[in-house]
Write a structure and sequence with these properties.
By secondary structure, the chain is of the alpha+beta class. It has two domains: about 210 residues, P-loop containing nucleotide triphosphate hydrolases (Rossmann fold), CATH 3.40.50; about 120 residues, Beta Barrel (OB fold (Dihydrolipoamide Acetyltransferase, E2P)), CATH 2.40.50.140. Helix content is about 20%, strand content about 30%. A six-stranded mixed beta sheet has the order 6-7-8-3-9-10, sandwiched between helices. Strands 16-11-12-19-20 form a five-stranded antiparallel beta sheet. The longest helix is centred in the middle third of the chain and has 18 residues. The N and C termini lie far apart (about 65 Å). Belongs to the ABC transporter superfamily. One of its GO terms (molecular function) is ATP binding. Pfam families: ABC_tran, TOBE_2.
Length: about 400
């Protein structure tokens, strides 16, 4: 069989480099660095002035709702789109205008991008054949990938003989065995069922750690982002809203948008005037909200619904000055819809937001985790702060 040529999802190791790597590159320099990236169409959509720094061996998720620019950012890093402004450096080399094949990365698309005439094994090993990897290494990597992704017994099948979930697992296996130190993933688990998605998620993280891969992972699923990532980049309307480790993003959101996007159920929002704090919105996580007798807490609400989840229950509560009030309690709640209930919001667990701008004033326990809420690289280079949309009044 003649040696194959590069194809979607793989790229051969570059024989020439568009940019020269500095000889004195610091050991702790970012492996992937984007500075001021802008790519829009007729002045709208895409991304605007986005900066981030990704450490070598890091797992970074780009999270956000549909249309926020996360896939555009990934395509810019991959070389599938050209920025109108800004720069991209990979391993110290300027790759801003380098073709995708020269960037030394693999990519998993939401679509499968498999060769219909090749078997599962041939698709998985395609990148390694391009690089002329030794036969023994190819066999070992194939066996590992097949076992990890549950593809045993399918090695000789063609893509047309596979289900949608199996095809995506083949595309994922092809990327992780390619040997490139950087792997970009664009919602790779979206076609898998819930049980398999949870299993493959753990396997992706284990393989990333074992091989020391640097992974940039695009998703709209906060569960994937929070469980997989070292750092989460939360995007909104083409800009970075917050960059933080998952725990800091959850505990100390920088805006009402971040607070309500992250968490299941999301953070509840209470009009500050109801708590003697006019001009503010008070956020509280479900596990921090305490139930009390009617009239005994900070607020008195009415039970709307109770969701029993086995180990615990979610009590959905209605109050005229709040939205999203949910209390997480252990075991069965024993409350009927329509019951009046007191609500305690411990001061140390409140997150305060400006009611006009929606930006955080302080986080739980006097701005705990403020260091993690910066919105740019930590390497001393300047990065623009995310700009919120037009100031808006709280509609609580």
């Amino acid at each position: 069989m003649p040696e194959p040529q590069p194809a979607p999802g793989t790229a051969p190791a570059p024989t020439s480099t568009p940019g020269d790597a500095p000889a004195d590159l610091p050991v702790d320099a970012p492996f992937v660095e984007a500075a001021g990236l802008t790519r829009q169409w007729n002045g709208a959509g895409g991304v605007a002035d986005v900066s981030l720094a990704i450490p070598r061996g890091g797992f970074v998720s780009i999270l956000g709702p549909s249309g926020c620019g996360k896939s555009t950012l990934l395509r810019l890093l991959a070389g599938l789109e050209t920025p109108q402004a800004g720069s991209i450096r990979i391993d110290g080399r300027d790759m801003t205008h380098a073709p995708a094949a020269a960037r030394g990365l693999s990519m998993v698309f939401q679509s499968y991008a498999l060769f219909p005439h090749l078997s599962v094994a041939e698709n998985i090993l395609f990148g390694m054949r391009v690089r002329r990897a030794p036969r023994a290494e190819r066999a070992a990597r194939l066996a590992e990938a097949v076992a990890m992704l549950g593809l045993e017994g399918l090695e000789r099948r063609r893509p047309a003989e596979l289900s949608g979930g199996q095809r995506q697992r083949v595309a994922l296996a092809r990327a992780v065995v390619s040997g490139h130190p950087l792997c970009l993933m664009d919602e790779p688990l979206s076609n898998l069922d819930a049980k398999l998605r949870h299993s493959v998620r753990r396997d992706i993280k284990a393989l990333q750690r074992r091989l020391g891969l640097t992974v940039v992972y695009v998703t709209h699923d906060q569960t994937e982002a929070m469980s997989l990532s070292d750092i989460v980049v939360l995007m909104r309307a083409g800009r970075v809203e917050q960059i933080a480790p998952p725990a800091a993003l959850y505990a100390a959101p920088v805006s009402i948008f971040a607070a309500e996007f992250v968490g299941e159920p999301p953070m509840a929002m209470v009009q500050g005037a109801a708590l003697g704090m006019p001009g503010r919105v008070v956020g509280i996580r479900p596990e921090k909200l305490r139930l009390a007798a009617p009239g005994a807490g900070d607020l008195t609400g009415r039970v709307v619904d109770v969701e029993f989840l086995g180990a615990g229950s979610r009590v959905v509560i209605e109050h005229a000055a709040a939205r999203g009030l949910v209390a997480s309690v252990a075991g069965a709640a024993g409350l009927a819809p329509g019951t009046e209930i007191g609500l305690c919001l411990p001061e140390d667990d409140r997150v305060l937001f400006d009611a006009l701008t929606g930006r955080a004033e302080r986080g739980p326990q006097q701005d705990r985790g403020a260091q993690d809420r910066q919105t740019g690289p930590r390497d001393g280079r300047k990065a623009p702060s995310p700009q919120p949309p037009e100031p808006q009044q709280s509609n609580l």
